[in-house]
Amino acid sequence: MRLSLALALLAAAPVSAAQQQPNAAAADAPTRAFTGGDLFGLSIAADPQISPDGRTIVYVRRSADIMADRMQSSLWLIDVASGRQSPFATQGSSPRWSPDGTRIAYVAGDGEGSQLFVRWLASGASARVTGFPGDPQALAWSPDGTRLAYVATVAGDATTLGKAPAKPEGAKWAPPLTVIDRVNYRNDGPGYVKPGRDHVFVVAADGGAARQLTFGAFDDGGPLSWTPDGREIVFAAIRGQEAERQVMNSDVIAVDVNSGALRTLTSRDGPDAQPRVAPDGSRVAWLGFDDKRRSYENTQLYIGDRDAANPRSLTAPLDRSIEDAVWAADGRSLYASYDDHGQRRIARVGLDGRVQPLIDNVEGGGIDRPYTGGDFSVAKNGTIAYTGGDASAPADVWVWSGGKPRRLTQLNAVMTAAKALAPVRKIAVKAPDGRAIDAWLATPPGLVPGTRAPLILEIHGGPNSAYGPGFATDVQLYAAAGYAVLWTNPRGSTSYGAEFANLIDKNYPSADYDDLIAAVDAAIADGIADPDNLFVTGGSGGGVLTAWIVGKTDRFKAAATQKPVINWISEALTMDATLFTSRYWFAKLPWEDPMSYWKRSPLSLVGNVKTPTLVVVGSEDYRTPVSESEQYYAALQIRGVPTALVKVPGASHGSFTSRPSQSAAKAAAILAWFDRYRTPPAR
Fold it and tell me: Which residues, in sequence order, are bridge partners of residue 338?
């Protein structure tokens, strides 16, 4: 399906004053509104890798290609002292410095797939060092710089049942049958699982035949970490007889580079992942938690002996989930990133568990909605390269040294200087039970003081995730159309501790609804939100809550539920991670306690819905499958509630807004729907 429906809705909608462009001169003025076409002009920095000596950074710059309608990745170098940039590769990703800082390994397209390349900085010459298998990931240099380890997919044979008749020569027959026998048989994004497994490889850094180190009907994952003597590589995987029926029970494993012998270093019930060997090889650090079958657990930073024996958590008292951690060069501490009150931070964590916060403006990830995120790396001298920023622009490259942060790039300065962007500020919200709830409010550019604006409540997904005060194109597009935009972290959100996140454990949706309504009331009390022009939208978990809200109240003039779960029973049995929902979000299986699933399904409230509700979903969504959205659309149609169904062609759950034109068109469709029901403000 094309986006014809979205465009038809846009054409049918009234044009707001903020969207009008009287003439070409006004359109080119510095105060012109942010538009869907501007998505093609944005760039975002990612994966900054600082050289061992701390003098140079190589990073991934993601920019939109308007002809291909895709985000493309190129690699750039930055001189840390001067901030001077220079191009490194017109396409590429996953750059990694050699231990001596003379070479950079990276991944780049080559034919239909990707391969591993190495660039010698002194000469500027590059060489392809892999040929098969393709699409390498999780690159890791050996300590002596002679080898590279990586993870790649090894193709397998498809399962068959029976045999078709012999096909005559030259005949054009139907494709052969597809036989599915895996528990997790499709993944959101890649689609239906092809025969094959991910395994660890090693190849000489100057090229040659790669050698496969791990085997079996298991998927091995990165990051990969070498021991200082170069004899072993440590990684994480779910292996064993019941591997396919485990959801998160990964272990830290060491593979002998010479013999391929495996040693499993951890064995608890719960994920152990992202292992990092200490610089002197005496310890291993990793991330994980004890799996208590709750919807949320803090991911903690553990260290143990070289064999991961005598493990202990360094961050249990922090009560925050660790996103990534790397060793300091002296092996006496680690640098770790985590989210706190909707903001990604970086801290130094001592071996005694003492946490010293260093950086509080880490940003990164996607650009359509204000989710927390960001990447970092650390030089031997402690200089930190990271992606950072605020609500004024997508992430740039920053550096932290000598106790101070410094911005090195301004990738979007020229474009944003010509835009009237929506200002963003934090507002105070108190839930009915007295809990403080973080919320942010963007107002239309140029809004006259004392004037109220129609309000869009934008709800994050997860539900165990977090929004923050970062840049978001959806927010800017909504604000440019004359709407104030409110986003918040209701109970269940991460970055506020395990207790807050688990307030919705086995009880979602529930009181998070009250938190969201309290935020709307706070925006009205703030003097910005027009109480007669309230709108609501959100994706994934936010789509669930959008559908839940319109089943509970008629306060909103219109709604747009994006890629929602509508019926927990059907979602649990059709989503890609087949075992997840019934194991972590409910106490029993669907057929054991169907009413528990039904009572928490927005479909159970559809009889109450009067709010005109748009339903939006990617046509290849396997996380909250298309059938969920279609159920809700059908139910609303049966009831006679104004509705429309918008499908984003070729989009999965995770790639819902990855193509700029579709991201812009999706936002335009939602705005057109809201504009249909928006009324002039009361005089």
Answer: 322, 345
